[in-house]
Amino acid sequence: MPQSKSKAIYKYARISPKKVMPVLNAVRGRRVFDAVNFLTFDKTKAAKMLLKTLNSALANARQAGVEEKGLIVQKAAADPAPTFKRGRPNSRSNYSKILKRNAHLTIVLADTVVPAETKEGN
Predict the structure, then answer these.
(1) Radius of gyration over every alpha carbon of the chain, rounded to an integer in angstroms
(2) Which residue of 21, 71, 78, 82 could cross-link 32, Cys pair, CB 3.0 to 4.6 Å?
């Protein structure tokens, strides 16, 4: 049986990848319904964004006809997106940079693969 995958990407999310990583690490490898439950009760901005992405990936899986019970979060990643460059005047006629970092949030759902039991003869 081939392993089916469904994917969703939240592009140009207005949050730093560094701030999303702790939530991603908590969700990666979990069953989908456990991950949805975890993200629903997490109060961070990153959790809201990831919940939106996870629900989109789940909808993509339903559209492909995949059974939802066996789905796990196989991959959860936050890649850097283009950075907004801002600045403000500083003392002594200097100008200090303000980098507003963005992220591309990727979630891939896959079926859990149950390995076939092998019987070893003695």
Answers:
(1) 19
(2) 71
CA dist., res. 36 & res. 47, Å (int):
10
Burial 8-46 (b: 16+ CB within 10 A, else e): bebeebebbbeebeebbebbeebebeebbebbeebeeeb
pLDDT, tens only, 45-102: 999 999 999 999 999 999 999 988 899 999 999 999 999 999 999 999 999 999 999 9
Return d(Cα 53, Cα 74) in angstroms, integer.
14
pLDDT at 109 over 70: yes
**CATH among 3.90.470.10, 3.40.50.2000, 3.30.420.10, 1.20.120.80 for 5-111:** 3.90.470.10
